[in-house]
Amino acid sequence: MEKKIKKFKINKKNKNSYQISISILKLIGNFSKSKNSTIMIKELSNIFDMPQKVLNLKYKKLLYSLIDYKSGSFSNKPISNFIYFFREIIKCIFLIVMIIFSSKKKEYNKFDFILHGVDDRKSFERYKLLLNKFKKPLVISKKKLNFKTKNISIKYSNFFLTAAEDLVNGKKIKIINLFMKIIFISLIHNFNYLYFLNLITYSILKNYKLFEINRGKYLMEDRFYNTCPIRNFYFKKFGGILTSTPQKNILETSISFFIDIDIFFSLGKEKFSSNRIRNLGGNFKNIIPVGSFFLEHEWYKKKKDQRIIPKIDILFTGINPNNWLYMNNINYHNNNLYRIWIKKISGLYPDLSIKIKNHGNFKGSQFEKNFFKKSNVEILENKSINASYGYMNKSKIIFSLGSTTILEAISMNKNGYFINPSAHSKNFFFGLKNLEKISIKSFLHLKRTIKEKIFLFKQNKIKKNEYCLKSDNVSKRVFNFFKNYK
User: Fold this and answer.
1) Residue 147 within any structural domain of the chain
2) H helical segments located in 302-365
């Protein structure tokens, strides 16, 4: 079974990127049930009195994190490189020292709301309105946030810690024996199982102690693709009621594997996202539509600087050029085709104001600048305090390959559409039928849509809330849900 992981290769000629995702899901699922994987999961479950399904989901999530879409295979360095194995031996020793020198429980603090995964000031500000609605909120960050806030506690989740005595008391020999056994299995099968054991053990030690000391009623994870079943388990073990996460992106397949959460705060009122969570190996109890935290913070709760933004006829918004781009050849091709269509539209309508607003993580490229040099297409720099929303508000129609801004634009009463050449963007749209209804699949379709919306002033006849609720009161909706939960 180890050889299947090592030799796995994505067929990038396969035009169905959703099918690619499902094939990865099946391989990971089968591997997690293999003999050596089962030995590790069962023993961890017995030692730490944790359900196997919790540990198995964490294990699968870690396996998936090794997929390198550029190379089309699992990253072999952590699982078969000797130097990496030696590093894991060092980490293993570090964990054993933490366990041997375990510490007794200190007095614990009680919070009514815990926000996890906020690692910068910008993210903190996005949730500040929600945090201030609770009497005693806590923010947990992996990075030191060098600012002070009133009434909101901030905890830096440090890497260096000792294990909780209550967790490891009477189990230390069993844990050390498990490490020795997994080292032996790794050497025999030339597969670094120790890499996964170290990560899972560290997650157990860290999250137990984190929530032993910091207890709360409700937990929210900033990014749905960073949910952790072990974190959720210990949050509830120490009295937590509900775990939650907001939707900040379309559930694109390369980032939506193994979501584990009680409440998924979705952008809009639709059932298709729930199907995708399940189909990609995830769990949830309920989906509650609330709108977009980003749109609430950047547009509805900030002053507007619309005077500095010109009127725009057609706005093309970019998406983060990460894993989805490299899933198969057709995705990469369509990303280039997107630029070609933009340039062709500019040639057909030289008098229209056509702008490109790239994703914040993409600073543009010289190739892109040269490509549009002799056209009337302008690549915008973000000068608005309202981020992309300021430009969207001044636009007549907005297009994107897969940005969530299209759903947000529709909620702002704007005309928004996805560009999906030949319906090949399966990683974005397969099964999400509400999105397929606003997808443009050909250049002729694009021309017709521009003609209808810009020159004939035809209005969209769609249910806006199916895509994204009006996001002027997202924080209030989320707070009221927790407040009224029984």
Assistant:
1) no
2) 329-348
The per-residue pLDDT for 160 is 60
The CATH number linked to 374 is: 3.40.50.2000
Element spanning 37, H or E = helix 35-48
441 lies in a domain? yes
Residues 113, 137 contacting (CB under 8 angstroms): yes
Q: Which residue stretches of the chain have pLDDT < 70?
A: 159-160, 363-364
Q: Which amino acid is at 327?
A: M
What kind and span of H or E run contains 286? strand 286-289
**Does 363 fall in a domain?**
yes
**Residue 320: count of CB within 10 angstroms of its CB:** 17
Q: Which residue has tokens 């706005």?
A: 315
Residue 317 lies in a domain: yes
Neighbours of 169 (CB within 10 A): 11
pLDDT of residue 159: 63
- What the block records as the tokens of 43 is 């023993």
Task: Tell me the sheet residues that pair with 286.
Answer: 263
Integer Cα distance of 426 and 334 in angstroms: 12
What is the total count of domains within the chain? 1
Rounded distance, CA 440 to CA 400, Å? 10
Order of strands across the sheet that contains 439-440: 377-379, 354-357, 312-317, 395-400, 415-419, 439-440
pLDDT digits (tens, 9 = 90+) for 262-305: 999 999 999 999 999 999 999 999 999 999 999 999 999 999 99
Among all chains, which residue has been given the structure tokens 């102690």?
A: 209
Q: At what angle do helices 17-32 and 52-64 cross, to 10 degrees?
A: 130
**Containing domain of residue 416, as a range?**
298-466
The pLDDT tens digits of the residues spanning 420-459 come to 999 999 999 999 999 988 999 999 999 999 999 998 888 7
Q: What are 158's two structure tokens?
A: 């440090």
pLDDT at 459: 78
Helix (H) or strand (E) holding 356: strand 354-357
Beta strands, E only, 187-273: 214-221, 242-246, 263-266
User: Could you give the CA distance from residue 176 to residue 198 in angstroms, rounded to a whole number?
Assistant: 12
Residue carrying the six token digits 């004939």: 456
Among 388, 481, 395, 402, which Cα is nearest to 440's?
402
How far CA 366 is from CA of 174, 321, 325, 336, in Å, comes to 57, 16, 19, 14
CA end-to-end span of the chain: 45
Q: What is the pLDDT of residue 27?
A: 97
